[in-house]
Amino acid sequence: MPTTQRALHPSAGNDTLGGVPEILYFDGSRGRGQAVRLFLEDAQIAYDDTRYTFDEYPEWKETGLAKLNPVKTIPVVKLNGKILTQSYAILRYWAKLLKSYDGKTVEEQYWVDVLCDIVSDWRTLFLQAAFSPNPGETYPKHKEGHRKRFLDGVEAHLTSNDFSKRGPFVLGQTITYADIVLYQIAHDEDLTQEGRKGLQQYPRLKHLVNAMEERPNIKAFLASDRYRG
Q1: 0.85 exceeded by the pTM?
Q2: pLDDT values of the chain reduced to their tens digit, one per residue, 229 residues
């Protein structure tokens, strides 16, 4: 049976979103659903965290999940009678409602979308390599090929863009949902662990990762039992 745990206390942010979201996702701290959790943790918005084990997931995918999302992908969020799907779309939606975690101008919003879409492409290739029938062969090739290409590209973007030059985040001093998804893909690729060993050649991205983990609410989350490694 899946487990459900209430995280945080309801706040003004819950009023803005229209209630307490329930996230339906895997048990663990990786993937797109974890980016949704991080967003709510940083914003201090209460949520119900419903977690399925990998053993439970296949049956639920064909029964319960199929009724919630026709394409049978997670995370799925239940909120005030609505079913929300597609994690990055969920983050954009909530950012608009909160009038935060996004750019203030069209140009800033475009730049946030650029980095988020880069992560989407990167994550697709990461998953193909990490969960292939032979990950021992495909993932090392991914690390030297696609992953290096995306790391090089993200580093170049962050070091050359005028917005990103102003501070540690994609928009300088202001955190956005793009920072959250960038952090999460770096985490899932095991680049944030072991003293950031995997980011030594990418000081600008390392600066972003450090800034994310130094945010008080993120730091508290990573030290809590809600974070599963």
Answers
A1: yes
A2: 899 999 999 999 999 999 999 999 999 889 999 999 999 999 999 999 999 999 999 999 999 999 999 999 999 999 999 999 999 999 999 999 999 999 999 999 999 999 999 999 999 999 999 999 999 999 999 999 999 999 999 999 999 999 999 999 999 999 999 999 999 999 999 999 989 999 999 999 999 999 999 999 999 999 999 998 8
Spatial CA neighbour of 208 closest among 168, 151, 171: 168
Cα–Cα distance measured from residue 216 to residue 76, given in angstroms and rounded to the nearest whole number: 27
Alpha carbons 91 and 42: distance in angstroms, whole number: 12
Burial 116-143 (b: 16+ CB within 10 A, else e): bebbeebbeebeebeeeeeeeebbeebb
Q: Which of 151, 132, 129 is nearest to 142 (CA)?
A: 129
